[in-house]
Amino acid sequence: MRIRVFIAILLLTLVFTKCQKELSNDNDTIEPVDNPTKTVVVLPEPITAHLQGNILDENNNPLAGVKITVGSVVTLTNDKGYFRIPNAPLDKKTALVKAERPGYFNGLRAFQATSGTNQVVLKLIKKYLAGSFYSVSGGEVTLLNGTKIIIPSNGIVDAATNADYLGK
Q1: Residue 122, class by beta-carbon neighbours within 10 Å (0-12 exposed, 13-18 middle, 19+ buried)?
Q2: Are the C-beta atoms of 65 and 101 separated by less than 8 Å?
Q3: CA distances (Å), 102 to each of 69, 82, 99, 106, 111, in order?
Q4: Which of 27, 71, 73, 95 satisfies CB 3.0 to 4.6 Å to 90 for a cystine?
Q5: What is the pTM of this model?
């Protein structure tokens, strides 16, 4: 009887301890994850450093008056599309710059920041309204490059409600 209990305890111990893998953070490396659905959290490493950059349009022309956001700091580009933020709140592993200007799609740039001066270049693409139509009747829109998009009547569905979209 004692041998059976001993064997049962030994088997249970093996089952609960056999597959445990330890992560070591000694040299900032993380072992590969055996389970692709497992989430690995990367902790932020905030630093303060200089950030500068240029904002261009799709034709490489400088864009003035672009709102640049880094953390809680906001500035604007000058007439040459240049901005500079001394002592910007950045993250060593994943710093994020956001560029906004009316009439253009927002631009985002993620990068690994250094303690020196960090340089970024973003290109903003101008918004272009190719056309419009009422979803009930459908319509056709021709893009600048000649591509045509044809939407049949009632061809647009609201994903949240699965109902036909009723609008322009």
Answers
A1: buried
A2: yes
A3: 15, 17, 10, 9, 24
A4: 95
A5: 0.62
Output the CA–CA distances (angstroms, integers) from residue 129 to 30, 63, 133, in the order listed.
46, 20, 12
Residue 116: DSSP 8-state: S
Cα–Cα distance between 66 and 57 in angstroms, integer?
11
Q: Can you tell me the distance from the alpha carbon of 130 to that of 142, in angstroms, rounded to the nearest whole number? A: 6
pLDDT tens by residue, 45-102: 899 999 999 999 999 999 999 999 999 999 999 999 999 999 999 999 999 999 999 9
User: Two tokens at 117?
Assistant: 């001066």
Q: Which amino acid is at 130?
A: A
Alpha-carbon gap, residue 88 to 98, rounded angstroms: 13
Per-residue tokens: 21: 């893998």
E strand intervals along the chain: 46-57, 67-70, 73-76, 82-91, 95-100, 107-111, 117-124, 139-142, 148-151, 157-158, 163-164
